[in-house]
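Q: Predict the bound structure with pyridoxal-5'-phosphate.
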Amino acid sequence: MAWGTLRRPVCAYVYDTAALRARTAEVRASLPPSAVLLYAVKANGNPAVLGALAEVCDGLEIASGGELALARAAGAKRIVFAGPAKTDAELAAALDTGMLINVESVHELRRIAALGDHPDVVLRVNRAGTALHGSHTMTGTPTPFGIDETQLGDALAVPGVHVIGFHLHAVSNNLDGAAHAAFVRDCLDWSARTAAAHGVDLRVVNVGGGFGVDYVTGASIDLSPLRDIEVPDGVELIFEPGRFLAADAGWYAAEVIDLKTTHGRTFAVLRGGTHHFRLPAAWGYSHPFTVVPVDDWPHPWPRPSVTDTEVDAVGELCTPRDVLTRGQHVDRLRAGDILLFARTGAYGWDISHHEFLRHDPPEFMIL
Ligand SMILES: *Cc1c(COP(=O)(O)O)cnc(C)c1O
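A: Predicted complex:
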């Protein structure tokens, strides 16, 4: 990587559009051939990332008016809209463009009926049971997302809309490919049964995102069990992953500003931190890094350095919670070296609290 072109002290997100395209091709090859592949914008809404993914995916999944503007600017071929608190203005903008809305409540459905001209819609359903486990579970449990399965009758009685399918996004960061395939088959079966019971002409089954990566071990979900899923004629099976498409196309690089040992623990203090990359703090895990050695040292005094030591990678914020990694072993680390955090292309910058302490933002380098 071209570190020399980054400003010092280094603090940067690097996004690789070739990696985005390669990952998308890999995912497509693992899905049933007729499946529709959308990218969930919330994982990373950087315009260059969206531009690349809008080109190679069938469309983008959005959850706000802001994401709608980004998706349009990126040239999305198709947009679908979910999200539990859509405003009338957002719904009107969505109806204007004719995009498919995943409806989250009976009240939202009535508002759509009032604003639109008998539009096609998809009902997001919080089903009675869930077959999947990951870092977050959205259905089969009390959440603000979707319509409780027991209230489907009320939803399907709302006049002025045309229900064409179901949205069943259930989990984030699932690592079990066989379980995911079983979940998708179950979604197709449930949708067919439910549509038949309620007289719905089923055209869309959206199984959401949730393909997982394990940040600590480096493992990823094996999607190959999904390939043989049979999709009924006339039904569009939609996948809308975020994390799995973007995670491995991003790196966060932060220079070691200071290196010190207090009360027996060694801290690498970075130009950066959780205000740029909040995920490890939010989820309570240690994000692994690699050391990029930087040999030049401009000062006449000895360079702070450690060898064969466990270090905590911490940020520049004035709080002890600004921790990216605890206790990772390093062979050697010096002030002025760079720590490189891989797999930070999804839910990195986008979920972080950028304004806290008002440090300069990172550079964004697009490859
Ligand atoms: C967040 C989200 C996704 C993407 O989830 P990942 O875990 O990043 O794959 C897809 N659909 C909906 C409705 C979401 O809220």
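A: The chain has two domains: 3-12+248-366, 17-246.
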